[in-house]
Amino acid sequence: MTVQEELRALIERNYLKLCEQLDAVTRLLVERVPASALDPASIAAAQGLTHQLRGAAGTIGFGQLSAAAAELDESLSRLLSDESPVAADRFERCLGLLVALRRIAEQTTPAMSALYRADLASMVPPAQCSAA
Q1: What's the domain count of the chain?
Q2: Average pLDDT for consecutive 10-residue bins of the chain (132 residues)?
């Protein structure tokens, strides 16, 4: 397997993991019992996953997905930083950002990664031998 093929396989595996993380965020924020609709623990868990998704998406070349995750991550962080109870209208904004993030994810494929078709030979200088 070539380095490019290995990179593509890595992107495909990580893309699936991103989708799984997004599903977990959705479960935490949307698929909840109404009584726990604004549970800070669920929001904190969703924010942690969204933060991971943001970084991982950017690392493997999904800039648009990373940017949308960053917006949701920051919104959830602000929501949690307030001392007051979570306001329903601010939570609704987070849900709107989640919908936008899911829409982007649904329209994204592994082949859309900026690294998927990258010419690695032109990106990485040849290894240089050094005397020990």
Answers
A1: 1
A2: 89 96 93 64 93 96 97 93 73 92 97 88 61 50
